[in-house]
Structure formats: structure tokens, C-alpha cells
Amino acid sequence: MAARMAFSRLTRSLCEVGRSRSLLLQSARWVTSASKTLTVTMDDKTGIAEMSLNRPPVNSLSLEFMTEINIALEKLEHEKFCRGVIITSAIPKIFSAGLDILEMYQPKPERLSEFWKTLQDMWLLLFGSRLTTIAAINGHSPAGGALVAMSCDYRIMAPGFNIGLNETQLGIVPPFWFIDTMMHTIGSRQTELCCQKGLMLSTEEAARIGLVDKVVPLDQIASEAKAEMQSWLKIPVAAKLITKQTIRAPILEKLQTRQEADVQNFCNFAMKDSVQKSLGMYLENLKKKQKE
Ligand SMILES: CCCCCCC/C=C/C(=O)SCCNC(=O)CCNC(=O)[C@H](O)C(C)(C)COP(=O)(O)OP(=O)(O)OC[C@H]1O[C@@H](n2cnc3c(N)ncnc32)[C@H](O)[C@@H]1OP(=O)(O)O
């Protein structure tokens, strides 16, 4: 249901963005075409797909990038032989820098609402996926990046990076469904501590509170993710999926029943002068940091 609703919006979004991104079936493996920013490969023997994010410099989630991700997720969801997907990054040291702040800073109102709908769709597709989903977190993963990781069934992270919902540090508020996703992962007390302070946790701190399930060296992250996936795929599929749906359905429904209102809230909030000022200053600091 979540995936179907997301798909109808996705189709519209695709037309508006005006890009064609077909997925080509190529014997044993299929790969995304038309774009270098997302590579999806599938091993037909194991039914395991890998989605690799590759939008330099930091895999920030723009409208177009999320549309691509959504199309790929939708395709995998309907791919008969696909049983699981591993999400990772092709960019050294960055899993995803989260939402593209440039989408929210001095935005055009129509694009802003489309941007938010596309983010909602991405979350609905990923959090509600029938597939087993594993995040192989091979770099920093703030805010929207953490949301992607937390929406998966399992998280493996390499040491030396940070992860968390840091929105309050930017003077913005994590949406209720970001918070719900974190509460689902680490419980409400830890979520409150992390979200109010906008904490970015080290890999080890994240593992300590269950935000990350396993810590492995960077060079072993891909093989470990595959091994972990194999163990999940041994569980009887219907039993596993119904269990996942039972746990996640109320969280998904909360957004599904308020999607339009959530878009409106977000747009109103984002357009506030004070929020625009905070975002402008944050962007400025990111650039300054680069020069230092
Ligand atoms: C308005 C209402 C909002 C309601 C709530 C919305 C919920 C929000 C969710 C979000 O995801 S907001 C985004 C949060 N993300 C961040 O705070 C991450 C910021 N980035 C970083 O901390 C670092 O860039 C990094 C990811 C740790 C990587 O550091 P590194 O030193 O490797 O690279 P930089 O030199 O910092 O960056 C390179 C380049 O990329 C630009 N950039 C970085 N992050 C973003 C981003 N999220 N969006 C857009 N652009 C980003 C950065 O400015 C540099 O640009 P140039 O100077 O090269 O042009």
C-alpha cells in the first residue's frame, strides 16, 4: 500500500523532473542506465541487489537524486527475483550528507513541495519495503543520511565516521517521521537525547545505543553486508515480512494519513525568515570550513 501510493506520486514527479531513467535487464545482472549518480546491480543467483549512491561531492539528497533512488527502489520491489538490497556509497568517507540544503535555501515554492513529497516517498518505499534492506555505512551519515540508514532492517558501519539527526544544530526541526524512525531504532529516551541536542555520534557511540548493529573495518564492510544479508535470507520469507509489517505499519500509517499536511508544514516552516537565515549561515559555515 505504502509502495503503491508512493509510486503514483513518483510517476508524477518523474514527469515533472523530466528525466528518463530506465533499468535495463542484462542477463544475470541489471544495472541502472542514464545516470552516473546511482548504480544498482543485482546478482540473480542470490537475489541480492546493491544500490550505490554516487552524487559528488557528498551524496546530498536533491529532488532529482531522490527521484532516481525511488525509481530504483520501486523497480527492485517489483523484481521477482530480488530478495534484499544493500545500500552503500561510492563516495569515499561519505555515506550521505543528508538533504541537499540548497533545495531548502531560497527555494521556489513548487519545487520545495515536490522535493518534500519525493523525500516522503523515498522513506515510505524504504521503510515499508518487502525486501530485506541493509545499510553498509561507509562514511559520514548526518540527518537525511541517517534516515536512509535507519530505514533499513540492519546497519553495518565502519569506524571513523559520524551518524545522527543533527537538525537542531542547523536551527531546524527533525520531522515527526524522522523522529519516529529513530525511536523505532533506539527507543524514545535515546532519541530524545540525540534529537534535542542534534548529536552526531561516532560509529562506536552509535553501536553502543543500537543505532548501528555492527561495526566492521571499512575494507570488510561490503563482504560483511553480503554475509549478513545471507543470514537474513535464510529466514522464512513470509514470516519475516509479516513480522516487519506488523512492527512498521503503524509508523508508516502515521505519515500516510498526514502526507499533505506534512508537506504544507514543511513548506511553511522552511519559508520562515528565521529558518532561511539559519540555513544561509549553516551553508556559509560549511564553505568557510573548507577554506580553513
Ligand atoms: C528547512 C526546514 C527543514 C525541516 C527539517 C528538514 C530535515 C533535514 C534533514 C537534513 O538532512 S538537513 C542536511 C543536514 N546535513 C548536514 O548537516 C551535513 C552537512 N555537511 C557536512 O557536515 C560535511 O559536508 C560532511 C558531510 C561531513 C562532509 O565533509 P567534507 O569535509 O568531506 O566536505 P565539505 O567540504 O564539508 O563539503 C563539500 C561540499 O558539499 C557541500 N555540502 C555538504 N553537505 C551538504 C548538504 N547537506 N547539502 C548541500 N551541500 C552540502 C559543502 O557546502 C561543500 O560545497 P562547496 O563549498 O564545495 O560548494
TrEMBL record:
Its predominant location is mitochondrion
SUPFAM superfamilies registered for this protein in UniProt? ClpP/crotonase
Q: Where in the cell is it found?
A: Mitochondrion matrix
InterPro entries from the xrefs? ClpP/crotonase-like_dom_sf, Enoyl-CoA_hyd/isom_CS, Enoyl-CoA_hydra/iso
Question: What Gene Ontology terms describe where this protein resides (cellular component)?
Answer: mitochondrial matrix
Query: What Gene3D superfamilies does the database record attribute to this sequence?
Result: 2-enoyl-CoA Hydratase, Chain A, domain 1 (3.90.226.10), 6.10.250.170
Show the GO MF annotations: delta(3)-delta(2)-enoyl-CoA isomerase activity
Q: Name one GO biological process term.
A: fatty acid beta-oxidation
**So what does this thing catalyse?**
(3Z)-dodecenoyl-CoA = (2E)-dodecenoyl-CoA; (3Z)-decenoyl-CoA = (2E)-decenoyl-CoA; (2E)-tetradecenoyl-CoA = (3Z)-tetradecenoyl-CoA; (3Z)-octenoyl-CoA = (2E)-octenoyl-CoA
Keywords assigned? Acetylation, Fatty acid metabolism, Isomerase, Lipid metabolism, Mitochondrion, Transit peptide
Q: What pathway or pathways are given for this protein in its record? A: Lipid metabolism; fatty acid beta-oxidation
Q: How does it assemble?
A: Homotrimer.
Question: What's this protein's family per the entry?
Answer: Belongs to the enoyl-CoA hydratase/isomerase family.
Task performed by this protein = Key enzyme of fatty acid beta-oxidation. Able to isomerize both 3-cis (3Z) and 3-trans (3E) double bonds into the 2-trans (2E) form in a range of enoyl-CoA species, with a preference for (3Z)-enoyl-CoAs over (3E)-enoyl-CoAs. The catalytic efficiency of this enzyme is not affected by the fatty acyl chain length.
Output this protein's name.
Enoyl-CoA delta isomerase 1, mitochondrial
Record organism: Potamilus streckersoni
The lineage, from the top, is: Eukaryota, Metazoa, Spiralia, Lophotrochozoa, Mollusca
